[in-house]
């Protein structure tokens, strides 16, 4: 309760200060001019009524009057006399109560003309003040709202300019991408034909690299899904390229029935590359395994490899995180994707997708996604 009072005092400190200065000034000026001073209870009661009247008019009545600006004059002519009548009745009731408590400076309350005129004047005085207060607060709020809208408009302009710049950079990158692959594939094709007569093994490595890179670059043009068997072929190319460099312990097991299933591109290839990048495939004890099979109406893709602790320390698992995001978009909640170290010092990745979800993925369009 005390904390709420403190917060209220802090929020209303400007109002409290202004009212304190106004009341002190008014009491001093009236007391000096008439040579008489009222009792503190009298001051407190009357100023409580006046301040309440001020805020009720400024914060409650005026917003209702101003709801339809075209009728504001007629509404004021109707409402203000009612307010004045209520104010006069309250003031008279307060004076009667103060008289009964012997808190007034005069012993009786007379409904005389001077009494009525004085209270009417005070009432209109504070109605005018409450009206001015309403328009000042409304003006400040409108200025604040206009400033917020202007800030929002400027932010939208900035965001639009950033988006336009990004679009220009993307277009430039796309144009470069159209040129570089063309040059790259022509060069690889040239190397293949020249190496074929010199070193068939090296020539096969070049053509495998060319096919795998073409597959990766053209992945966004393959449609929503591709045949899993097509990506398996690229995995075989990737394994072959690594085997050319050094002897590695890798085993690929593929259920032939699974090769005809549709799947979003580059999932299997990314998982395989992740095993090569972060695994210890030269370990003669534990062979790295890549397994693809169908079980319980689900497609299962699993990789298991001994952990390369040096690579693991530098790994952020960004590739696996990106795969999860793509799977969520394509298959919603109809898949399971887990990965992590096991007690046998291996890193295991397991992906399971409902077969029915694989078929529905053909309805999904990557072109509708903004990355």
UniProtKB/TrEMBL annotation:
Domain of life from the UniProt record: Bacteria
Keywords in alphabetical order: Kinase, Membrane, Transferase, Transmembrane, Transmembrane helix
GO molecular function: phosphorelay sensor kinase activity
InterPro entries xrefs: Bact_2-comp_sensor_kinase, HATPase_C_sf, Sig_transdc_His_kin_internal
Membrane found in the keyword field: yes
All residue ranges annotated as the Signal transduction histidine kinase internal region domain in the record: 173-246
Protein name (database record): Histidine kinase
Organism: Mucilaginibacter yixingensis
